[in-house]
Specification:
With about 260 residues, the protein is mostly helical. It has helices spanning about 5-10, 10-20, 30-55, 60-80, 85-105, 115-145, 150-155, 160-185, 195-200, 205-235.
């Protein structure tokens, strides 16, 4: 695809702009910002990736993955419901997810230790982990706030913080992972996944494209469950003090 051809696709930006203006939705500014940012960011990433792929230096691959993790941490922290110490909790979670998945992929030689595989798969894994992290945090804090009296009652009867928060924690974990699990039940019937479609458009064998897509789907299952569990068990202790008292105010602490 050439830049001239790409410019023609801007009609798909023009359509929502016209509809927003016609129906007075007020989405014009956000739509333009989203379109401009996506163009700049993706083109910049494209040139950076070309440099990394050509250099074939592991240090650049590590730096690229670290940049993804930092960006995901910043975005999840900003958009997720605030919990004390959430920045380092998110960072540790994303790092662990990345190390776990790449250790399996490279250790079992499922994928070769090349930049095009490591960076592409890491982007999908970290991006999915970021979305799941935001979903979990929003649901978890909502559950804790709604069931505050139940939590305090369990504590007053001699229960531990883990026992007091168990129901809310499990509910939030299930709620955040269900979308990933449910979407995979209809994959290939309702929609063709992006990676698979991209490979087919690029001329790859459809069966090979399917095999790579299945790899990603299985990775995302691990990412979804592991992200929610890690964030949950890293987050809930900060809601209690050393005397096992519930600290509701910690749900609203905004890190600077």
């Amino acid at each position: 695809m050439s830049y001239v051809t790409l410019s023609l696709t801007l009609i798909f930006v023009l359509i929502p702009l016209v509809l927003s203006k016609t129906f007075k939705l007020g989405l014009e500014k956000d739509t333009l910002i989203a379109a401009v940012r996506s163009i700049i960011q993706l083109l910049a990433v494209g040139y950076v990736l070309q440099f990394v792929f050509d250099s074939k230096q592991m240090i650049y691959i590590v730096l690229m993955v670290l940049l993804m993790i930092v960006a995901a941490t910043h975005n999840a922290r900003k958009k997720g419901t605030s919990i004390k110490g959430i920045t380092w909790k998110l960072f540790v979670t994303f790092v662990c997810i990345e190390v776990l998945t790449q250790a399996i992929l490279l250790g079992l030689r499922i994928t070769p230790p090349e930049a095009q595989y490591i960076i592409s798969i890491s982007g999908m894994v970290i991006g999915n982990s970021m979305v799941l992290g935001i979903l979990f945090l929003n649901r978890f804090t909502a559950e804790v706030e709604t069931n505050q009296k139940q939590t305090e009652l369990i504590l007053s009867l001699g229960g531990t913080p883990k026992q007091a928060i168990h129901t809310q924690l499990i509910t939030a974990i299930k709620a955040s992972t269900i979308p990933t699990i449910e979407s995979q039940k209809t994959i290939g019937l309702v929609q063709l996944p992006g990676m698979m479609s991209g490979q087919i458009i690029a001329g790859a064998d459809p069966v090979q494209a399917v095999l790579f897509q299945l790899l990603i789907l299985f990775l995302l299952l691990t990412t979804a469950v592991t992200t929610s569990i890690m964030l949950g068990y890293l987050s809930y202790p900060t809601l209690f003090n050393e005397r096992m008292q519930f600290l509701k105010e910690n749900l609203a602490v905004e890190e600077s």
